[in-house]
Design goal:
Layout (H helix, E strand, L loop, with lengths): L14 H17 L2 H17 L10 H24 L35 H15 L3 H12 L4 H8 L3 H24 L2
Length: about 190
């Protein structure tokens, strides 16, 4: 280690003031539930206190706390998956005809930004997308949010949910197909 480089240190008494809002926003986007996000942040602080002796000062305090929270989010999804979803629900999927294949990976929006929320139509579309996602089977919604909106890596999702990469892509394809059908029915055909 470079002797001239100062190591970062922890200040647990300042965590709530300095990081609670940031960590809450990070968590709520990933779990889509405010109460759960608050619980995860609280668990993050407790885990940070318990493992403070392991902090080496190689990262900032915030980065270290975010990495703990990220593991808490993954553990949450792993827990949901182990309780609920080992058996996949069989259902019929939208047959898009000429539209088949329009939701290939290269054409998916890479980031979902909130810049246009001032526009009423975009806000209504966002609400409809959220409703459509909420109507997906729970596992599909979870995988879709993690991969497409929260930008988790494929390996992270597969490990957390104990699924194979090919299973993940089947779930993503089915979720997108159902979302497309839902949006066509409830938004574009209105």
């Amino acid at each position: 280690m470079n002797p001239n480089k100062e190591k970062n240190s922890l200040s647990p008494d300042q965590w709530v003031d300095n990081y609670a809002d940031y960590l809450f926003n990070y968590a709520v986007v990933r779990v889509n539930n405010e109460a759960l996000a608050k619980d995860l942040v609280q668990e993050t602080f407790f885990a940070g206190l318990k493992s403070a002796k392991n902090f080496e000062g190689k990262s900032t305090e915030r980065t270290w706390l975010v990495s703990i929270l990220k593991r808490k989010v993954i553990d949450h999804y792993r827990k949901i998956n182990s309780k609920k979803g080992q058996a996949e629900v069989k259902m019929s999927f939208y047959d898009g005809g000429d539209n088949e294949g329009n939701w290939i990976e290269e054409r998916v929006p890479q980031t979902w930004k909130n810049e246009a929320e001032e526009d009423i139509e975009n806000e209504e579309l966002k609400e409809q997308i959220d409703k459509c996602i909420d109507n997906l089977p729970e596992k599909y919604a979870m995988v879709f949010r993690m991969k497409t909106m929260q930008e988790f890596e494929t390996e992270e999702i597969c490990k957390a949910l104990e699924i194979t990469p090919s299973n993940l892509w089947v779930i993503i394809h089915r979720a997108r197909t159902q979302l497309r059908g839902c949006l066509e029915k409830n938004w574009f055909n209105n």
